[in-house]
Write a structure and sequence with these properties.
This protein is an alpha/beta fold. It has helices at about 15-25, 65-70, 105-115, 115-140, 150-160, 160-170, 175-185, 185-195, 195-210, 220-225, 245-260, 300-305, 315-325, 365-375, 375-380, 425-440, 445-450, 460-465, 515-530, and strands at about 5-10, 30-35, 45-50, 55, 80-85, 90, 100, 230, 235, 240, 265, 270-275, 280-285, 290-295, 330-340, 360, 385-390, 405-410, 450-455, 500-505. The strands form five sheets. Strands 1, 2, 11, 12, 13, 14 and 20 form a seven-stranded mixed beta sheet that branches. Strands 7-6-16-17-18-15-19 form a seven-stranded mixed beta sheet, with helices on both faces.
C-alpha cells in the first residue's frame, strides 16, 4: 500500500501501541504507527538528563509486563534484559532500624519479626490471601472484560469463569477478601492484619502510588493489589530494572513491530479522525490524510474521543462519560544525578549495600500516607511527600559515570490543579525542595550529592506525554472505572461507538502500568473484526 492508506493505523508509539501493532502486523495486515514525538516509547523512554547521566524519564520500573507478550515479541532476543531488585523494598525510619521486604518469604518474616513477632506470624496468611486474589485477577488481564450488555454470547463466555470463581468460593474467606479488596480501603485491610506502622506503611505505599487518595479511601485496596499482579523473571510480585532504562523495553518492542512489518512514522501528530461511506480517514497536523480500515488509539481516552473525533460521531451518553472521566494521579517525577549514594542514618553504609538496590520507600506509616494526601487541600501539594526512590545505577553501570549514580524519584501527592490557586510555574521549585528535604531527612548527604536533575510536574507529564491530569494510568483505577466500566459500559471490548476505532491504551482494561495488556487485547478485537469483515 502507499503512504496514504493502510489496513491499520495506530496512534501513538508507546508500549501499548507497539504491542498492538506487532500482533496486527504479524497476522499479515498492513500497519502504520503515527507518533507525534521524535522517538518511540511514549512514557517509557530513556534519555540523558544531565551530562553523562541517563535514566528512564517517566515510567521507571518493570513487573507488570506480561510474560506472554515478552515471549511473543521475543524481546529477550531483541536485547531486553530485566534484572530483579536485590531486595524488593526498603523502608527507612527516622526513629528505628528500617524494614526490608524480600522476595523470599522467610527472610521477609524474619525482618518483620525484628519489629513484631505477631505480625511476622500473620504475614504468611496475609500473603496467601493476597496471592489467592491476584491469581483470580491475573487470569483476566489478557482477555476482554465480560460485557453485561453483550447478549447471550457474553453469558456463554462467562461460563469460562466457573473454574476461577470456584477457587474464590471454596477457599475459606477468599470471596469476602476479594470483595473487600475491590470495594474497600487498603488502610482498613492492613489494619485488620497488622499492628506495626512501618510494615503497614511499606505495604500501603502501593495503594497510593499513582493514585490521588488516602490509603483509607474506598477502592485504594485494589491499587495495592494491582501492583502485586506482575512478575520479574518468573518471580511473582517481583519488580526489576530494564538494563538501559525503560527505553530498552520500547526499543525492543519497536524492533519486534517493525520486524513483523509495521511502519513507524515519527513526528506525525494526528489532528482528526473522521468516517464517511468509504471508511475512516486520519488527518495529520501537516494536512496529510491516511485512509484506514481500523484505527487504534494508544492514547488517553479523552484525547481520542474528545479531541480527535467530532462530537456528532459519538452518542451523547458516551461523550458525557468521557467528559466525566476522572484522570488525576497527583504524581511528581524526578531524575537526579548523584555524586554518591544516599547514606541512610538508619542503615549507614560506606559502600553500596543491597538496600540501595531496593525500592526505597519514604512511607513510614499509613498515617504518614494519609497526611500526605490531606496536606494537598491545605498547602496545594504535600510538604512531606510519599516517595519511591530507586537507584538503578547500582545494577546498571551504563547509566552514570563510574562512582556516580542516578536516582529515580516517584512522588505523591502533587495535584495537577493546586488547591491554593498557584500555577505549576509558581509551585515547581517548592515541590522539588519538599522532595529533596524529605529524602535528606533520612539520608543527610542526599542534597549535597546532587549534581543535576530533571523534574516533571503533573503539568509537564500532561504536556510531554499526553497524560491528562498528569495521570500515569490514563484515568483513576477505582471500581467505577475498572473492568467493564473502563472506559464505559457497553464499550469494554476495546471497540468504540465509532465503527472501526478502538482504544488500545491504559484507559482500557486492565488499566495502567507497563503491561502491554491493553495493546494485546485490543489487537485481538481488531483482528476478529478485520477477519470477519465487520470493518
Amino acid at each position: 500500500m502507499d503512504e496514504s492508506e493502510s489496513d491499520v493505523v495506530i496512534i501513538g508509539a508507546g508500549h501499548n501501541g507497539l504491542v498492538c501493532a506487532f500482533y496486527l502486523a504479524r497476522a499479515g495486515f498492513d500497519v502504520v504507527i503515527l507518533e507525534r514525538a521524535a522517538v518511540v516509547g511514549g512514557a517509557a523512554v530513556t534519555e540523558e538528563f544531565h551530562p553523562g547521566f541517563r535514566n528512564s524519564v517517566a515510567s521507571y520500573t518493570v513487573s507488570l509486563l506480561a510474560p506472554r507478550i515478552i515471549a511473543d515479541m521475543q524481546l529477550g532476543d531483541r536485547g531486553l534484559r530485566i534484572v530483579p531488585r536485590p531486595i524488593a523494598n526498603f523502608v527507612p525510619q527516622l526513629d528505628g532500624p528500617g524494614l526490608e521486604l524480600h522476595h523470599d518469604a522467610a527472610r521477609t518474616r524474619a525482618a518483620i519479626a525484628a519489629h513484631s513477632r505477631r505480625d511476622a506470624e500473620r504475614y504468611a496468611d496475609f500473603a496467601a490471601e493476597l496471592a489467592g486474589i491476584t491469581r483470580f485477577v491475573r487470569s483476566t488481564l489478557l482477555e476482554a472484560p465480560l460485557d453485561p450488555r453483550g447478549g447471550w454470547r457474553e453469558w456463554i463466555r462467562a461460563l469460562g469463569f466457573a473454574p476461577r470463581i470456584r477457587e474464590l468460593l471454596t477457599t475459606p474467606g477468599l470471596a469476602a477478601a476479594f470483595w473487600g479488596v475491590m470495594t474497600g480501603s487498603a488502610g482498613d485491610w492492613l489494619d485488620r492484619w497488622f499492628a506495626t506502622d512501618v510494615l503497614k506503611g511499606a505495604l500501603g505505599f502501593d495503594a497510593v502510588v499513582g493514585h490521588y487518595a488516602s490509603p483509607y479511601a474506598p477502592g485504594s485496596a485494589y491499587l495495592l493489589l494491582h501492583h502485586a499482579l506482575g512478575e520479574t523473571n518468573g518471580v511473582q510480585g517481583a519488580w526489576g530494572h530494564a538494563l538501559g532504562g525503560m527505553g530498552a523495553v520500547t526499543a525492543a518492542m519497536a524492533a519486534a513491530a517493525q520486524g513483523a512489518g509495521a511502519r513507524i512514522r515519527l513526528g506525525e501528530s494526528v489532528e482528526k479522525i473522521s468516517r464517511d461511506s468509504a471508511g475512516l480517514t486520519i488527518t495529520t497536523a501537516t494536512g496529510s490524510e491516511i485512509r484506514a480500515r481500523v484505527i487504534g488509539g494508544a492514547i488517553h481516552p479523552q484525547i481520542l474521543f474528545s479531541r480527535l473525533i467530532e462530537p456528532t460521531d459519538l452518542p451523547e451518553s458516551f461523550r458525557e462519560r468521557i467528559a466525566g472521566w476522572r484522570s488525576e494521579s497527583a504524581s511528581f517525577r524526578m531524575n537526579v544525578a548523584l555524586a554518591e549514594l544516599p547514606d541512610f542514618t538508619c542503615r549507614p553504609a560506606a559502600a553500596p549495600g543491597p538496600h540501595h538496590g531496593a525500592g526505597i520507600l519514604i512511607s513510614p506509616s499509613l498515617a504518614y500516607l494519609d497526611r500526605a494526601f490531606a496536606d494537598t487541600h491545605v498547602s496545594g501539594h504535600s510538604r512531606s511527600p510519599v516517595i519511591e526512590l530507586l537507584l538503578p545505577s547500582t545494577v546498571d553501570d551504563s547509566l552514570a559515570p563510574r562512582g556516580a549514580h542516578v536516582a529515580s524519584l516517584f512522588c505523591q501527592h502533587f495535584p495537577r490543579e493546586l488547591a491554593d490557586g498557584r500555577s505549576w510555574d509558581e509551585a515547581k521549585t517548592g515541590a522539588v525542595e519538599s522532595i529533596i528535604d524529605t529524602v535528606s531527612a533520612y539520608a543527610p548527604n542526599f542534597r549535597g550529592a546532587i549534581l543535576g536533575m530533571q523534574a516533571l510536574s503533573p503539568e509537564d507529564l500532561e504536556e510531554r506525554f499526553g497524560l491528562i491530569g498528569g495521570d500515569i494510568f490514563h484515568g483513576q483505577m477505582t471500581l467505577d472505572q475498572l473492568y467493564w466500566a473502563r472506559p464505559a459500559m457497553g464499550h469494554t471490548s476495546y471497540r468504540s461507538p465509532l465503527r472501526g476505532v478502538y482504544l488500545c491504551a491504559a484507559g482500557a482494561h486492565p488499566g495502567g502500568g507497563v503491561s502491554g495488556a491493553p495493546g494485546h487485547n485490543a489487537a485481538q478485537a481488531m483482528l476478529a473484526d478485520l477477519r470477519a469483515g465487520r470493518v
